[in-house]
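Box S1 | Example of a co-folding query
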Amino acid sequence: MARPVAVYYHPDCLLHDTGPQHPETVARLTVAKAALDASRFASLIHWQLPEPAEVRWIERIHTAEYRQFIEESCLRGKHFVDMGETAVCQESYRAALLSAGAAIQAVDSVMQEGYQRAFCLTRPPGHHASEEQAMGFCLFNNVAIAANYALEVYGLERVCIVDWDVHHGNGTQDIFYGSPTVLFCSLHQLPLYPHTGESHETGTGAGKGMTVNCPLPFGAGIDLYHESWEHDLAPEIRAFQPQLILISAGFDAHREDPLADIELDARDYYHMTRWVLEIAEESAHGRVVSMLEGGYNLEALAESVKEHLRAMAEAD
Ligand SMILES: [Zn+2]
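Box S1 (continued) | Returned holo structure for zinc ion
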């Protein structure tokens, strides 16, 4: 028996204009949506229109000053909100609130609306954004906002974030580095931007051991990913017994991606998704919320998103 997946998408996320030549482009969403619409499992994709996140959920993760800085920078049409990589336009603040809102409402979908699996096909992405710094095309840290929301609103005690974007999720790591309630697991290329995510970075204080980094070398393929998953990540996640698993789903470890040097194929994202779903079935009632992070070759991104959703929509 196949399962429907709640997929959050809003056309206003297309209004976040990063300018010509920028890799984090509007077309990323349109090609991925077209691939899902044309897929054999299109009837299992239940499209949902997100509402903008309430400011209070943004400010649980980011400082009020930072949120205001982003809002004002966008409204003034400032081009960059960091040293020159994270671009915004007037509509970017609304797109960022929709991206965070989708993450929150996707949690509602799996916690109370009868879905087990949800995906946010939104932009801007989030995993590089820290408490008070935009970075790496990210404004608000969507996955962190969703994790905190799940802990606060649903009273969960253990949420796991699996971040397989090819870049280390430094923002998410920083936000939860001292937290005992969020297990942050990352598979990423190193050395590569943002040059963090060494395996000795494991958390601090009450969060000691709650950060698990698996840096992978230039040219790594699915075999190394599988080995890291089986030996380093899966045992930690199983021991933690997460009640909900969130995925920071970047697809820039694809071999065709222009921003990294990892050798995954679209089909590998099908398998990686199944690895996560398998653990979610054991302790989290199958609840998985995934959200788009990177992925910059349009054709590779569309195919990879399709494989990710194919795995989500499939029965066990
Ligand atoms: Zn990335």
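Residues 5-313 form a domain with the Arginase; Chain A fold (CATH 3.40.800.20). The chain has nine helices and eight strands.
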